[in-house]
Amino acid sequence: MDFDLSEEQRLLKDSVDRLMADRYGFENRQRYAKEPEGWSRDLWSAYAELGLLALPFDEAHGGFGGGPVETMTIMEAFGRSLTLEPYLATVILGGGLLKQGGSEEQKATYLPQIASGDLRLAFGHTERQSRYDLFHVGTSAQRDGGSFILNGQKSVVLHGDSADKILVTARVAGSRRDRDGIGLFLVDANAPGVSRRGYPTQDGQRAAEVTLESVRVDSGNVIGNPEGALPVVEKVTDIAIAALAAEAIGAMDEMLKLTVDYLKTRKQFNTTIGSFQVLQHRSSEMFIALEQGRSMAMFAAMMAQEQNPEERRKAISAAKVQIGRSGRFVGQQAVQLHGGVGMTMEYKVGHLFKRVTMIDTLFGDADHHLSNLAEAGGLMAA
Amino acid sequence: MDLRFTDEELAFRDEVREFFRTALPDSIRRKMIEGHHPSKDDLVTWSRILNTKGWAVPHWPVEWGGTGWSPVKQYIFRDELQQAPAPEPLAFGVSMVGPVIYTFGNEDQKRRFLPRIANLDDWWCQGFSEPGAGSDLASLKTTAKRDGEYYIVNGQKTWTTLAQHADWIFCLVRTDSTVKKQEGISFLLIDMKTSGITVRPIQTIDGGHEVNEVFFDDVRVPVENLVGQENKGWDYAKFLLGNERVGIARIGISKARLKRVRELASLERIGDVPLIDIPRFREKLAAVEVELKALEMTQLRVVAAESRREKGKPDPASSILKIKGSEIQQATTELLMEVVGPFAMPYHPEEEGRNEPTDGPDWASTAAPTYFNWRKISIYGGSNEIQKNIIAKAILGF
Ligand SMILES: Cc1cc2nc3c(=O)[nH]c(=O)nc-3n(C[C@H](O)[C@H](O)[C@H](O)COP(=O)(O)OP(=O)(O)OC[C@H]3O[C@@H](n4cnc5c(N)ncnc54)[C@H](O)[C@@H]3O)c2cc1C
Q1: Are residues A336 and A283 both part of a single domain?
Q2: Fewer beta carbons below 10 Å: N end or C end of chain A?
Q3: Which parts of the sequence belong to the Acyl-CoA dehydrogenase/oxidase N-terminal domain (chain B) (predicted)?
Q4: Tens digits of residue pLDDT in B160-184
Q5: What pTM, to 2 d.p., does this model score?
Q6: Domains and CATH numbers, chain B
């Protein structure tokens, strides 16, 4: 067992940290949010130059063959700086689905374009009635010769408004909540019948409502088995949850740091408020919650590669529960201990709080995953 | 001991409930149910409806518009109002500066201000906190220097709620800096139109605009706007903050929100099962209801003891109401977030007359902003940490 980063991983961490320190201060971040797409094209190019967009892909596809630990390193840095670019949507979700489910030809076509920064993707899975169940798919895909005709609506598609292509789940066979019969389709965002309405999300990122009306997808853009895509979708969302866990840890770490700094400088009653033991203890509790979360983020990174899907899903659910709970506690207390300052848009801590809150609602909140884990028999083998 | 309401109190409750059912404009009721902020106009409209009925300021002395109701009836009234759910009359006027004026002000001030507060002709805001004076309010630095028949005010207030609408601000100002800090503070009433006052908005994390910074640059305030005695302002402020805490449990608001959670959780489904039928969710909801019932009984005990207490001396147990009341309200906002699920994400800035479709169910858009915004209630009105200090010192004797 080794919890330390390798030499290469350390170099990666240093270069991402340096990029964030140079270009992703809070004021810059607020400026990037006002750009037309809600994130910075310049930074996107910088990520491409550093190889971050190529990280998880195989060398044959222009990638670096990075694993979950590399992803964790990047995401933690992104969490700390509250980055806005569609990294999760494009590289982790979109790229992940193509890498895990795509044909050799699809991978050879698209992964290098992602790596170079030229292709942005999004993943549409949530529907009005689906809540957090990935298998709940009402959007239909009807066979028409070798192609499929898609009809339906996908909600809260992360960065769906600026994506060039959108991966969507659609039902080829079976009924609304069957695990079988679900296909995965790569849809051109400008294809006839696709309409999108973009909007900001609570945490300052972007998402879109995507409507599909008789959208034709040819056989070359079907990803994997058109009636059996769910296992790939679940695997990739589990990898994404592990990535989000790391992002949440970055955000929590930053909140704790900001809070402790604040307590050491803010004066009331002729003393720094950090001299009050109750606030020291509260900070200690935040630290404990953060470290428990960090441990589970590492566990998630390790288990994201687990071959047995049952074991993988239980582990990821466990991590999501811990991250949700730690994030809530750390976020709420960070705001509380800042007093009024924590409540303003002008200060970073409130934005971090909002981000960890939204991370909890992505791919299932703590309660959803607790139920899933309990139903699957818990973590400990009997 | 009899913990039931008397027949008379029950009849009173029905009367009040019926009034709120018929007199509250539907458009305002909808906003309240859906978690939108009532506008200034809404609040003015509603305050005048209450005032016409004679119920705008029930807790005030009868000669200034009060109703003379017993503390229990006052409680019932408030609880029903919150459950309606109707907007609460602007606290800065009716619960804060109003009682200070009728308790410590002179006759001129009472005649001049009290009727206008009751009718919301004057919108008041509270100028206590400063950048360097939050929990340690007494360290405030805004100064008022006597110059003939005027005070010249200089300094800055912050977190001033709804100052953008305000006609008047009541301020704590330093009039003597040579004495112990609590002993050099005075309570001034300042017309917001006076030259030298600047209001700068502060956006809160939910995206709303409810707080502001207020700057004073050589603002001339007539001495007749001093309340009570010079340098006694701290006593009046303590009196005011004690009153603020009593109302802060807001049990009726939590009841209304739990009702809403229950309704929405029966509409929202996981597959074919309504969320309300999922045991994990139901138990969480029930657990909050237990806490709320306990708090309601505690509140009633405080209310019942009120008639026996020395006038104007708040019960230190009211700190329980503040702490538990805020925690429960915050818990209800978490439940609402859970009901909404993935549709908590889309952000729709709150704008009057906006009619773009919302993304997801139309009741989803206020869930996250309400959750974010409600973090404030454990910070203001004396933070929950400060309330625990009060319990430790005033009740437990540490
Ligand atoms: C939305 C909102 C609206 C407001 N509206 C108004 C208004 O209209 N008018 C007005 O005058 N003010 C208003 N306030 C200000 C409010 O009263 C202050 O925020 C509050 O008094 C806390 O002060 P502070 O923000 O400076 O925090 P600080 O006092 O700096 O406190 C920071 C943290 O330290 C803790 N702390 C401080 N002292 C102690 C101690 N002795 N022991 C243990 N913990 C301690 C606090 O609990 C808090 O967690 C508002 C605030 C908010 C957030």
Answers
A1: yes
A2: N
A3: 6-119
A4: 999 999 999 999 999 999 999 999 9
A5: 0.97
A6: 7-89 (1.10.540.10), 124-232 (2.40.110.10), 248-395 (1.20.140.10)
